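#lab-general

N.A. 3:47 PM
ok so I finally got the sequence cleaned up, no stray characters, all 233 residues accounted for. can someone with queue access submit it? mine expired

B.Y. 3:52 PM
send it over

N.A. 3:53 PM
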Amino acid sequence: MRKLLAEFFGTYWLVFGGCGSALFAAGIPDLGIGFAGVSLAFGLTVLTMAYAVGHISGGHFNPAVTLGLWAGGRFEAKDILPYILSQCVGAIAAAGTLFFILSGKDGFAIDNTKAGAFASNGFDAFSPQGYSMTAAFTAEFVLTLFFLLIILGATDKLANGKFAGVAIGLGLTLIHLISIPITNTSVNPARSLSQAVFAGGEPLSQVWLFWAAPILGAIVAGFIYKNLLQDKS
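B.Y. 4:20 PM
back already:
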């Protein structure tokens, strides 16, 4: 139960901090934090929670990470479903909190006919810069693959584990710097689901891609690291 609570709170913080920065602070004229600020916010959520609760649950906060660690031989199959459920509940709870806060602003409404509605992910007309489904799938697959390689390498028994959280947090920051214009950046199915549930409409109908591509990328990364990169001596 402690592990599941850690995953709940870690994923909650990731969505609240990352998506919250996009919703509250990114678009303010002259003073807004923009894409770079949102990218840093997502990285900081993972970095801070990796040190806060990572020692309890392993600090996944992401269904793709859980499955990638399983593929890499670092996580037991019996714990996959409880972890993913905890992550999704935490993400949706955070999205609910964001919705409640935003509802306190006059004129608030989610326009789910536009890209990035309620910080949702999307492709084609729902990509921030109009990238196709194929382009979005490729970006999410490749970026999640490299995110898992960073995680698996930084947490390897031969690595300096004290700095794993820094490497992982900066890795997620870089991923967002690359891909916010493409998909609004997912690499995390729970994060995508939570925002799409509240946005509804086309963002919700497109959420399948933001489960399939990150999970496939993570699993491929797990097998690559386990079989090609890991020192087995």
